Amino acid sequence: MAYSEKVMDHFANPRNVGEIPDADGIGEVGNSKCGDIMKMYIKVEDNRIVDVKFKTFGCGAAIATSSMATELIKGKTIDEALKLTNKAVMEALDGLPPVKVHCSVLAEQAIKAALADYYKKNGIDPTPIVGDIGDCDDCHCH
Fold it and tell me: For the whole model, what pTM was predicted?
């Protein structure tokens, strides 16, 4: 299985690893059956994601997609972050092997779950804005 240099770089040197103790939104996706669990933390000020951190339990591709996803939304508005797709994450990493595409789906879902949590904490129903996040049963886990 060939990984791009960017995937290897984000796996070996992941960006934004950790927790935000006073996070405005926390999203956790994946399950132990799948083997990949991602937890995203976001800090929001003036409708902008000023900080984002992640903790991922999983394979190298799961760590790389988490790292890249945080890089892609940091400093962006909530609306911009909501538009992030797994395809954009894969493109930013110069691709993923087909059996690892589900990792990029999890990264997109983790961000959406953190944003949904942010909306809930602010008394707003996230479903019309964020949509249905789904769960790991939707992806092709190994």
Answer: 0.92
Q: Which amino acid is at 81?
A: A
Residue type, 44: V
Q: Catalytic: 34?
A: yes
Give the model confidence (pLDDT) of 58-87 as tens digits: 999 999 999 999 999 999 999 999 999 999
Q: Is 141 a catalytic residue?
A: no
Taking residue 1's Cβ as centre, other Cβ atoms within 10 Å add up to 9
Q: Is the Cβ–Cβ distance between 103 and 57 less than 8 Å?
A: no
Choosing from 103, 136, 139, 141, which is the catalytic residue? 103
C-beta separation of 41 from 20 below 8 A:
yes
DSSP string, 62-114: HHHHHHHHHHHHTT-BHHHHHT--HHHHHHHTT---GGGHHHHHHHHHHHHHH
- Give the burial class of 32: count Cβ atoms within 10 A of its Cβ; 0-12 exposed, 13-18 middle, 19 or more buried: exposed
